[in-house]
Sequence to fold (220 residues):
Amino acid sequence: QKEVEQDPGPLSVPEGAIVSLNCTYSNSAFQYFMWYRQYSRKGPELLMYTYSSGNKEDGRFTAQVDKSSKYISLFIRDSQPSDSATYLCATYTGNQFYFGTGTSLTVIP
Amino acid sequence: GAGVSQSPRYKVAKRGQDVALRCDPISGHVSLFWYQQALGQGPEFLTYFQNEAQLDKSGLPSDRFFAERPEGSVSTLKIQRTQQEDSAVYLCASIETGELFFGEGSRLTVL
Fold:
């Protein structure tokens, strides 16, 4: 079992839609959770991070962690064509980062 | 430099050739990671350096893979006798306060 599991999609939504991206993780000891965005032929870049449980909001993006169910979510409000990318969930412990497979998102104008 | 720099961006090798991929991390970043990203997959850990010390190489898939960082700055990932299954994007990242900063990757295609 991988440390982080993610539905690869692809996901295609119209501009303005609310997008929900989800991951599950295996180890209840994980505390730090991140979402990386990766544009085509680019390296991943950090979008948001959360520590432990709860929500964190940054503009149109909300990251949510539910430790009881080991579930990580990223919500994108008012999605824009510029949000079209692959979104990778990740967790971190010690000096190891564990990434999901990524969900490919296309926002159609 | 301003970000993590990797070269070459694209490399085509014939099966059996040796390749070397270079990573120039953000100046002052002590820790450096190499990841392998296959098509449609997330980055998979290969190896980790702290300064010049290779502290973890558990992700290297075979003894054909070798990484070094002799002066604690630039790092090189070397793949000997390349195989088709080595085709992937190789990402380098340096880290500061828990955030990974990735380069754009070196895309290796083995024919």
About this structure: The first strand of chain A starts at residue 4 and ends at 6. The two ends of chain A are 38 Å apart (CA to CA).
